[in-house]
What we know:
Layout: E1 2-9, H1 15-24, E2 28-32, E3 41-45, E4 51-56, E5 59-61, E6 77-85, H2 89-103, E7 106-109, E8 114-115, E9 128-140, H3 148-159, E10 165-169, E11 176-177, H4 178-192, E12 196-201, E13 206-212, H5 214-218, E14 223-231, H6 238-255, E15 257-270, E16 275-277, H7 284-287, E17 294-295, E18 318-319, E19 329-333, H8 337-345, E20 352-355, E21 359-363, H9 371-374
Antiparallel strand pairs: 1-6, 1-7, 2-3, 3-4, 4-6, 5-6, 7-8, 9-14, 9-15, 10-11, 10-12, 12-13, 13-14, 15-16, 15-19, 17-18, 19-21, 20-21
Amino acid sequence: xxxxxxxxxxxxxxxxxxxxxxxxxxxxxxxxxxxxxxxxxxxxxxxxxxxxxxxxxxxxxxxxxxxxxxxxxxxxxxxxxxxxxxxxxxxxxxxxxxxxxxxxxxxxxxxxxxxxxxxxxxxxxxxxxxxxxxxxxxxxxxxxxxxxxxxxxxxxxxxxxxxxxxxxxxxxxxxxxxxxxxxxxxxxxxxxxxxxxxxxxxxxxxxxxxxxxxxxxxxxxxxxxxxxxxxxxxxxxxxxxxxxxxxxxxxxxxxxxxxxxxxxxxxxxxxxxxxxxxxxxxxxxxxxxxxxxxxxxxxxxxxxxxxxxxxxxxxxxxxxxxxxxxxxxxxxxxxxxxxxxxxxxxxxxxxxxxxxxxxxxxxxxxxxxxxxxxxxxxxxxxxxxxxxxxxxxxxxxxxxxxxxx
Length: 405
């Protein structure tokens, strides 16, 4: 097992500093990639050849992205992530402390513990109970279509007044800033990504999101997914809700989606910077906005020139079907339109159905409502499902009727 420690400093750590500290401790280092760039690393071994810890290349972070428990100032702040192994934890910890001294900074472990303790924030950020809003869209990737990140940014700027994307990358901590690198770089990173490009959002009420890459779509029945998480409580205001509706439907239309939902999930909190789950641990599919209806694949890795081994592609099943439960909003387009038309025609009068540019938007209530709150308006439908049962996904099992490209 391993754990991560973040070392924060006000100046960039060069490879020479890292190698010097490793040499002083009597360990051996192996470098990979461009450590002084943005995609390098150093693996550290003992005399017997056992891996002790790994050091990722520095990434610049905004002060507002620092851990809640860390009280540190600087512009910019540089972060070095050190992956510790359980068998050599003490050696990794000693290296982190030496690195902290070298950069006059601080280290923070996965539990939020800070060293030196004088830089620990005295008062924890207050968390306010909140509901999470999971926005998600799915469609089939076509070679001649506008790149999905471009659709996301353009629609957000037009409907919300912000680009929505702040920092992005394939894995956190996200190394690239949208305002610095621009849309072209975001699209390039997306095209080259193995599975997804994840991002932090520009601020309240939006939290984070992701866009699946072309490589991932290629092994997921040609299907892509976009997810954005937000604080549902922010959309009780009619004006904010109207902007969200234009964004939700606008992204569905512009991307060529076939299905999308706005799902309200209770049991969360907001600390002014991010959402947190207050009811146990958060399932990965919930955090990623998929809620169990999307199964993505894993592209095949290129052949390793040293070992001659390549990880084979793992096919995904793509969109498994519609949610088994009603969601606050749903959008249907493409091949789903003829499948749901009859259900929408016979829907209860409380359901609000409206045409969009390329599909149909279904709203089950005015203000954000979770599944428990929505069961009243759809109670008489629950014995067969809120939509035809053949279209619904249950417990990650594919629906009997699914769309294909």
